[in-house]
Amino acid sequence: MANLAYLVPDGDVLLPNPVTRGPWGQTISGHVVGGILARSLEQAGSEPGLQPARLTVDLLRPTAIAPLEVRTTVRRDGRRIRLVDAELVQNDVVVSRASAVFLRRGEHPEGDVWSSPVSMPPLPPDPGPLPDDMMMFVWGYGGDGKSGAVGFTKWHEAGPKYAWIRQVRPLVAGEETSPFVHVAMASDATSALSHWGTGGMRYINADYTLTLARLPVGDDIGLAAMSHNSHDGVAAGAATVFDAQGPIGNATTVGLVNPAESFHPRA
Could you tell me the superkingdom of the organism this chain comes from (predicted)? Predict the structure, then answer.
């Protein structure tokens, strides 16, 4: 399995490897940007008993495959709520930003609360050896949700869309990628999952928000598309987020219409 990290640390600077290139040109993929910001937010905000409950990533500008710095600020540090902001900086310009809310866990209340029923198709089979240049392992379902395939081919079909996503390389060399960073990186795919239609992928994502009731268990993160709304070239999408044990949260995203020929997906 490919194991070249996306990034190499050099003091306070992160040096991206070429594998960080995303589907919209010679820039760093949004899922890597989200992972970098989630990592820094978790480093600043984590504490025993605190749950990372919400992450919002704003993709402000294209991020060059060049050295990066992250600046974090704790905005609120209360007994039950901690709010942390982060900025991703290149050449003293903020290219992306994020915020995270950490909530203190407590005794769970009794009673049932209604939720819209949704389930994921089965986990993918063992893919065997993977190409060294694979960005991440994606097993997509489309149409009837009964047959899946590596990558995004099934998303060209009409009907519901699902994906199981597994990271195949560390985010930062020499570090174990945390469950929070794993799910943050996978949730960037909400845009493609919810906005991909029979005409292909026509919307570039401007942001995404992940909400979590708990952290994921295991390496497989599932996304089930729940809604797509679009008008005059602006789209809003949503997905339910899963691990192998069941639903753990939700993700939302907004997108802006982009030429179809500019999108070149890399699984």
Answer: Bacteria
Give the H or E element holding residue 32. helix 30-45
CB atoms within 10 A of CB 83: 17
In the numeric block, the tokens 């939302």 are attached to 252
Predicted confidence (pLDDT) per residue in 150-203, tens digit? 887 777 777 889 999 999 999 999 999 999 999 999 999 999 999 988 888 889
Outline where 135-213 has alpha helix (H). Answer: 179-187, 190-195
Contacts of residue 92, Cβ cutoff 8 Å, sequence gap at least 6: none
Could you give the count of Cα atoms lying within 13 Å of 175 in the half-sphere of its Cβ?
A: 19
Sign of torsion over alpha carbons 201, 136, 254, 249: positive
- Confidence (pTM): 0.93
Using an 8 Å Cβ cutoff, are 88 and 141 in contact?
no
